[in-house]
Amino acid sequence: MWYSKYKPARPRKINREKWVNLWKKLRYYLFATLVLIAAGIVFSAFLQKVLLQNHQTIETSAAQHYAAEVDGDLSTYKALISYGTYMLDARMEEGDSDEDIISRINQYCIRIQTILGQDQVDPYVVYKGKIYAANPWEGDETYDYPSSVWYKEAMEHRGEVVFTDVYTDSIYHRGIITVVGACLHSDTVVALDIFPENLNIQPSGVVPAEGTSVFICDTSGSAVYTRTELDASQQQVYVDRMLASIQDGKVGRYDSFVLGMDGVRRGIYYADTENGWKVILTVPVDRMLGQLTQFIGIYILIMLAWIIGFAVTIWHNLRLDSMVERSSETIRVLSNSYYGIFRVNYEEDTYEIIKSSPYTRGRLAREGPYSEFVSAISGLMDADTVNEFCKSFSSESLRALNAGHIRDYGGDFLGRYDSGEKWINIRVLFDEALGPDEAVLCFREVDKEKRREIQERKLLEETLAISRRNEKSKLSFFNNMSHDMRTPLNAILGVLDLLRQHAGDPQKVREYADKISYSGRQLLDLVNDILEMSRMEQGKMTLNHQAFDLEECVQACADSFRPQARQEKKTFQVSCKLQDKRIMGDSTRVTQMLNNLLSNAFKFTSEGDTVSLTVRQMGGPPTPQYQIVVRDTGIGMSEEFLPQLFEPYIRETRFFSRQVMGTGLGMPIVKSLVTQMNGQIYVDSKLGEGTTFTITVPFLTAAAASAENQPAPAPAAEKKPEEPCSLKGKKILVAEDNVLNMEIASEILTMNGLEVFQAWNGREAVELFLASAPFAFDAILMDMQMPQMDGCEAARKIRAADRPDAADVPIVAVTANAFAEDIAATTAAGMNAHISKPIDFRILCATLKDLLENRPGSEGAKNL
Fold first, then answer.
1. Where is average pLDDT lowest: 272-286, 367-381, 702-716?
2. Residues 121, 200 contacting (CB under 8 angstroms)
3. Which end of the chain is more exposed for a tag (fewer CB within 10 A), N or C?
4. How far apart are the C-alpha atoms of 123 and 136, rounded to whole Å?
5. Is 741 found in the same domain as 684?
6. Is 720 inside any structural domain?
7. Domain that residue 813 falls in
8. Among residues 555, 469, 447, 53, which one has the least CA distance to residue 289?
């Protein structure tokens, strides 16, 4: 029994504890629930108030935007009327005829309709009792305009622009508004009828709430413009009711409403225009509070999720604090690059020190007038910089920079410190994080960077100046190079005239032919001056020492100038006083040197002047000194020009009465040649008296060279190779696109016993070579510039061919160009040698002899 009594008692104890624990857990929840319910009610009321207040702010702002839009349109109409009255007053004061004034009235009306739209306005002008309109009215001649409202108001407010209230026009029989203005000095009236039903007023950026009605009424309360769902018959009644409520002060609060014609409560918001019109907006209250239920539900969900959100917020804040700290460290590092940072308010004309510099310590207070800051900083600058600094960093300048949306502005100045001068960079920074009228001024030392920049800029300017000077000199060279070609051409033409006169004398013909040949090669040498200059600049010019007769060389060079002397009526004297005439040297270079000196002498002399060439020997064998003197009585040279005489492309022509052409390379080449020959050159010149060039060069006599067992080749005049050379029977592939050049080359080669195979372009040359048997051709002469495929490309394809003779068949470039870059291009393309046009068979023979002797596995050179 005891046990049975005990069992029922235990469950009762457990249930009691359970409810107690449950109550303990739920009491806070229930209390929180009651609090949440109360908070929901309070929040709903608060939210309703906030929504209504927000709508009041938004819709009032919208009404103000509508009012501003109306003011803008009315200002446009006012400006057009003012312009019309001003224009007509001005025309009438200047006395323009009625026809001119009426024409201007018509143009004015048409332009207004073009600008504003024909369906929007109707402009017209009353001039001398007659109405002129863009669209003439029916019955305007009988229209009693003096009694009209708009005319009376215009006369009462002469010189002003007046807006009438809405009235029913007797012409259109509908409501219109007239903008009118009368001229000051006449009864002329300019008017503009506005049709309210055609107005389309919609401010940019304003999106009315759904169900919003818009009413615009004039000073009399008449509706000028409406945007509503009400019938036209109800609109004016509703407008009158709203105006009465506004006048009685029943509206204006966020919770004041009017009852619409449909019985719906509506919030009313209004604004006034500058001319007294009123803009009224009404919004249904249900629309404004339509989301209140949703907001209450969202509020409950937010409260339920508050704990989770709070935890997430705490975590996010901790993480954000860490990021902010890192950002602050980064900002501190960036600010350390500036030794002085100042915050400026340019409207209040004040400054505040954010980071003080050593210079400003003791000179500036922590805060103060901006003018004191400018004055203190100006102490670092010179007078010119101070003026520019005060102008560029004044309060007015900072204001203009901010207005122009310039966020970063500044520059460098040379600061004067006790320790010396240093370049300082000053920057003014604008940012949205600052106040609307504030900027930050930063100072940073950039002395090393600025001085390096100045040095680099100076170097760049010097380099640019040199480049421009060289470009100018080379341009002058290319413009004038034809002049130096004229001398040998004149010699050729002169000798040809003599040849025609002595055609029946074989001896004379041979003599003249030799002179023509000599002058022709002299002309070719002039063209090669360009190559000589290129070689000089690259240090690749060499001398070809041979035995030659110096006197014959001098006389041959002088003979080419005698026809020119006779033609220009100048005295030309040549004198040679030599004991050892045959010497070792480069006759071509000597001729080139003499030709340049004599050419210059004849260029800068006039009719009746004298040019003399004197060559004499000083000292005896084995290495006597030979002195060459070229003297003229021409215009001479200025002292300023003499130091530039031997610079490439430089010429002096300012003191000569006629234009003198030339390459500007003659004297630099002469100077280089004399230096190469271990000689000296001296110049003596005076303006108006003439010029004397004196060259002293040591030459080894031919006899001394023979005594020393040195080979003594034949004289340069004969230009015979040391050993007889023959290419008879050799097969040569010639690639040339020019018919005349091909004919000359083929004839020369055929005359010397060679078998010629012709190719008219690079592609044809490659095809002929590939179609031939291996080692069929002993050599290839390749023109550089040809159609379809140039010489360099053809040479590369031949070298790349898969056949035993492709790699070592001699390929010789033949071209009129003799530039260093052309020689480099042929070498890169795999060509073995380079000769110039026209082909000199003796040079070709010597070139092929060397190439064929060194050709692996070839028997081609055995018969040479």
1. 702-716
2. no
3. N
4. 10
5. no
6. no
7. 731-853
8. 53
